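ASSEMBLY PREDICTION REQUEST
Request ID: AP-0331
Submitted by: J.K., bench scientist
Number of chains: two
Total residues: 545
Priority: normal
Notes: Please return the full assembly, not individual chains.
Input sequences:
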Amino acid sequence: MEHCERYTSLLSARLDGELTPEEERELEDHLAVCPACRALGSRLAAIHSAFPELEEVAAPEGFARGVMDRVRATEDAKAKVVPLFRRPQFKALAGMAACLALCLGIYQAGLPGQTRKDAAQMMTAADLQTAEAEQPAAAAAPSLFTADTDVGEEKAKIPDSVPQSRAAEQSPQEKAGETFDQTTVLTGAEEQPQDGAANGAAAVQSQMGFAQEITSGYYAFENARYLRVSYGQTPQAPSAQILGSADSLTAFLAQFPGDDLSQVSSDYGEEFFAGRRLLAIVVEEGSGSVRHEIAPQGLERERVTVLRQTPGEGTDDMAAWLILAEVDGSFQDGEVLSVVFEDQS
Amino acid sequence: MTEQELVARAKAGDQDAFEQLVLANQNKVYSLAFRMVNDREEAADLAQEAFLKAWQGLPSFQGDSSFSTWVYRLASNVCIDFLRKQKRRREVEPALSLDDQESGWTEPADWDQDPQRHLERAERGRALARALETLPDHHRQVLVLRELSGLSYQEIGQALGLDMGTVKSRIARSRLALRKILWQDGNFFDGTPSNPSKKD
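STATUS: Completed
Returned structure:
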């Protein structure tokens, strides 16, 4: 059998249709004179043909339920990252902010003999009350709207009050302290009368102020690059991490054995990492036609939102992408971010 | 409801429809994962991940193939990812040699002395399943990728980071190793092959 050893792999490869015509001829010539290899060939063929007869192994009990739990968890995560500006609450919030500014302005304007500074201090107190109270909507908002009611007929004085609006008077520190919690608090006063709140410069300015505060949870990124890489030859997907040194980048890129990413290495050297970091996202899709983009306001401290656009017509091939974007030096090497997808219609 | 109808509903966001698709395909997908990794818990996790990818990829699923074929392919890819990561771990902590040269197997002295037995199809399938479970990982995995996932030698090479020659010889050795196990168990698979090609 020793001299037949070479033909074993040819017998096996023939079952898989992986022989070249030359190998096929060579094997046939050998089989014509070697009964042992003919017998081996028939046995290997019998094993090969038995694979379709393999019985299925029953999935464990509760398997489908487990899948659906994971599906629901994914959907919940997606729902949580609907961009703020698309949320119905945002419009109400912005209107509420405008209303609040208007009320404060009117309130201040209606206070006889009180200076703007005094009024501003009172507003700060109201803010604190709003932020601290467990039921702030009930505690703070009514008092503010009481003022609105008191001076409801004096809206003509609004222009004088505009610079004293809540947003205009707030210190940078206070602005930085604004959180979603606080905006949620304000949402609680949505049902309060808002007539006239959307009109005038005060409303516009206040809306702008809130928009800036709300978006302050996002981090800037630039020069995003979208590189298609070999499917099945990437690190875990989806995944996102911060690369903070050229060495980290080199180690990271080594996890893409199927692609030549030397250009990436040369683009981001030690000089780049002196003040900046690289956000690296890996995604996989069931179709090469799917396109990705980091959401314009998609980078947060611990997660990044990726917009996913699926064309009407697409292919069913598997595909993987490496997305790179430059971020500021406040991110640390090795930080891992969660990736959240948002499907675009 | 047909698979096509269920897919259409699932694409529209109907989770109940998707669950029906999961139930209809779970054994097939789980079986593949189990035969790939030979660990029930790991297999369940991988199979679930395949279905999760299917749910996430539904918007891009064009129906060129059946859902069943598609999710099976997704499962293959999930398993390949797993094997690659497993391989990387082993490279860091080499505990088991994957060198084909060290896993050699000597054939029985005389094939023709094997007693002839014709097994029923089901029994053959069961015997093969048992034998597969006892194969070393690196033998079982290439065979599953070839025989169950239907990958070409080139695709297997890409998936496992092996050159074509190694894939070819490893598959051959895996089949011989399987043959040995079946022979030792008294299951000889000496019945008529599906595509006899020998020249008697």
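REVIEWER COMMENTS: Residues 2-53 of chain A form one domain.
SIGN-OFF: pending second reviewer
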